[in-house]
Amino acid sequence: MSPAIRKIRPINNEIEIKRFQFESTPSKGSIKASFANEGDVEFQDMAIAENNLFYYSIVSPKETLIAKKVIFLFHGLNEKSWKKYLPWAEMISEGTGSSVVLFPIAFHMQRVPRQWKDRENMEVLSRIRKRTNPGIHTSSPYNASLSERIAERPQRFMDSGIRTYNDVIRFIETCKDGQHSFIHKDFTFNIFAYSIGGYLAQMLKFTNYQGYFTHTKVCLFCSGSTLDSAAPISKFILDSSAEDKLRDYFKGGEVNDIILSSEHQRMDEMVLRSFYQYNHMRGFREAHIKAHCDYLYVIALKKDDVIPADAVVRTMGGQEGNLGIKVDVLDFERDYTHEIPFSLNHDPMDGNDEDMVVVFNKVNNFFNS
Question: Could you tell me which residues come within 8 angstroms of residue 74 by beta carbon, excluding any fewer than 6 positions away?
């Protein structure tokens, strides 16, 4: 069934935002068999209504009746609001003439239950985590829900990515079948991916299911290192206890047993595993990066403490620095962080707007080349 437009809202005189509904249908068979004795945790997650049926937005030029050029925008870890991304989507849409699909990762953004966003509930949960995890730091109401879920079952990190991977494939197939009311069946698409969204983008590009991503360009922003080099300890992302559990999970043996059911053999496990640790499967990973070098562009930020620029350069450039990927490492003459690269206040005196123009001119030049 064609996704119905729920609402059209102008952003400025040239850009508007449309909302469409998407239904994500998890497969019981996609659950890893060795987790069958963990109780009903996986099935409880599958029953979260907000994650299964949700609205997503498309930012597009006003004159667009049917979109033939699309750019997916993938967000970061533990995000629950699109506020900081709307100016990014607007600049990409204006600069490329594309319609930008703000597609939420599973159990993020509008795909989370209301109580995960409730400040009072999350303050209580953060206090509980501090009391029950001696030595914990960076626990906050902002990261309490994700930290609790990851600490309870680190596999959820991968579950979310695999679920979203399959959702994006289904979205593309819906469009290709001519069942989307706004996107043309012969549309072309690229990907702009920030932070953890960059790993999803690389999996989609490198596995290239059914050849859908052969000509897809992927621009990574504040992303691109292997996961062992990332440090997501932040009051906005994960607390230290959850990050420890996640790091142990990637180092442990159970991560090597991740598989998809025969119905969903879309994600090549070799590609997935090659991004866990820098020294693990390095040759395999670098061969894939080099093979797609003409379709990849990376922007890292010098003061990024979550996905450090030097780790991005090392991963995307390769040990010998010969993978052919253009990696721009930028720095701004103002305070910024991985989580907030651009101020939401848009003070014309702090240089923020100029920095955004520099970054997104580079992004748009890549997509337009």
Answer: 103, 105, 191, 192, 193, 194, 197, 198, 200, 201
Q: Is the separation of the CB atoms in 363 and 298 below 8 Å?
A: no
CA angle 361, 83, 169 (to 5 degrees): 75
Read off the CATH number of the domain in which 95 is found. Answer: 3.40.50.1820
Residue 251 forms part of a structural domain = no
Cα–Cα dist 247/231, whole Å = 10
Half-sphere exposure of 118 (CA within 13 A, CB side): 7
Decide: helix, strand or coil at residue 316.
helix
Nearest to 191 by CA among 176, 206, 202, 178: 202
Model pTM? Answer: 0.90
Partners of residue 190 on adjacent β-strands: 71
272-291 pLDDT, tens digit per residue, is 788 888 888 899 999 999 99
Range of the domain at 325: 5-117+160-241+261-368
* d(C-alpha 189, C-alpha 72), whole Å: 7
Helical axes 119-132 vs 144-152, angle rounded to 10°: 50
244-281 burial, b if ≥16 CB within 10 A, otherwise e? bbbbebbeeeebeebebeeebebbbeebbbbbbbbeeb
Is residue 265 assigned to a domain?
A: yes
